[in-house]
Specification:
With about 120 residues, the chain is an alpha+beta fold. It has one domain: Alpha-Beta Plaits (2-Layer Sandwich), CATH 3.30.70. Helix content is about 45%, strand content about 20%. Strands 2-3-1-4 form a four-stranded antiparallel beta sheet. The radius of gyration is 16 Å and the shape is globular.
Length: about 120
C-alpha cells in the first residue's frame, strides 16, 4: 500500500467558468485513470467538500511511490491540466504528503526530533 500521496486541491469556479471546470475535471479523471492503469500511481480518490466557509472546495489524493509522484509533478500533461484547472478554478494547489504507514513513520521521526524541546 502506498505511503506517499499527491494532494491536488481546488476552490470554487470563477464566475462563468463552471462548464470549463467540469470539462477539466473530466479530463483529469481520465488522466488519473490512465496513470493508474499504467502503474504510475497506485490509486486515487476525489473528494468534493460541502460548504464550510473555507477556500477549499474539493481535492484529489493520488497515492503511489514518491519517485513516481515526483516525476508526475514534472510531466507535461500534469502541468497542462494544472494550468487548465487554474484558468477555471480558484485556489489550485499541489502538495506532497505522507499517508498511512508513511504518516506513522513521519510522526515517529517528528516526535524524536522535538523530544528535547518539550
Amino acid at each position: 500500500m502506498a505511503e506517499f500521496g499527491l494532494f491536488i486541491g481546488w476552490g470554487q469556479p470563477y464566475a462563468g467558468k463552471q462548464a470549463g471546470a467540469a470539462k477539466v475535471f473530466e479530463e483529469a479523471v481520465g488522466y488519473w485513470n490512465s496513470l493508474q492503469a499504467a502503474g504510475e500511481i497506485e490509486s486515487y480518490e476525489v473528494v468534493q467538500l460541502s460548504s464550510h466557509g473555507g477556500d477549499l472546495a474539493g481535492f484529489a489524493l493520488l497515492r503511489g511511490d514518491p519517485e513516481k509522484l515526483g516525476r508526475l509533478r514534472m510531466a507535461p500533461e500534469f502541468g497542462r491540466l494544472t494550468m487548465r484547472a487554474a484558468a477555471c478554478l480558484t485556489g489550485i494547489g499541489v502538495v506532497d504528503g505522507m499517508v498511512d504507514a508513511g504518516m506513522v513513520r513521519w510522526m515517529g521521526a517528528w516526535k524524536e526530533a522535538i523530544a528535547d524541546l518539550v
